[in-house]
Design goal:
This protein has two domains: 92 residues, 2-Layer Sandwich (Phosphorylase Kinase, domain 1), CATH 3.30.200.20; 153 residues, Orthogonal Bundle (Transferase(Phosphotransferase), domain 1), CATH 1.10.510. The protein has ten helices and nine strands. Strands 1-2-3-5-4 form a five-stranded antiparallel β-sheet, sandwiched between helices. The protein has a two-stranded antiparallel sheet with strand order 6-9. A two-stranded antiparallel ribbon has the order 7-8. α4 packs antiparallel against α6 and α6 runs antiparallel to α8. The longest helix is centred in the middle third of the chain and has 20 residues. It is globular, with a radius of gyration of 19 Å. The chain starts with 30 loop residues before the first helix and ends with a helix.
Amino acid sequence: MFNSAQKRAPPQLLVTPRYRTTQSEYNNPNSERLFEKAKENSFNQLKVLQQIGYGKFSKVMLAMLNGEKFALKIINKGCTIKTQTQQHLQREIQIMKQLNHPNIVKLFKEFSDEKNVYLLLEYCNQGSLFNQKFDQTQIKQIIKEVLLALKYLHSQGIMHRDIKPENIYLHNNHVKLGDFGIAQYIKKQSKSFCGTLDYMAPEVINQNFYDNRIDIWSVGILTYELSNLEPPIKDRDQKLQMRRIISEEVQYPRHFDQKLKNFISKCLKKRSDERATIDELLNDEYIHS
């Protein structure tokens, strides 16, 4: 039903790019020795097979434990110190430890050594949504499961802040929302300029206080991009793109039917208090058509 895909880069600081860097800054020649030492206190039977992904300051390895596959994310401590993102990593781990939902990537174990932090994560056998093509039946199911993941996440008092194809994975044809590197607790007021520009809500760009309704905006952009293979507002000039996101209404391609356009429009209201709720979107005729 779905095909595997290559992922793009995770966040650097609070603003995330749309494309993978050509190489990772992760560089630790002693990583194998340190890892063997660290896992002695965690999983002696864990076997690392091959690299399956990488980010600016991390790499992801395919690992086996008791016959089961896992994704082992290895994060360089020095890079997080250099970029002052240690707090984001600590919060990511804290958030993932409290989450338990079938549509969210599960964190099974976290351990560390002098150089690295290791996250033993649920392995997703079909990769991320990025660079994959889907028909509308598939897209509706994907969006439904993203909404279910967000409904649970918001019920736990957390907003994701970086919903996009790169951060949504597929396993056995079901969605797994991952990459909580810039997720934040809703109770803490925020107006940080963060996320991925293509997916940023107007209130984030304006650096106004915002809440979990920024995730609803991102669902609208996601639905559009999955249906058209590119986001609705894109510009080489980032400042111009920001102005356009704030002021322009989305234009729809001819192949979008009315139910699809209505669904996206309910997400992409410039005023956050006018956006549809998750329950309203789950009950929308587009999802059920």
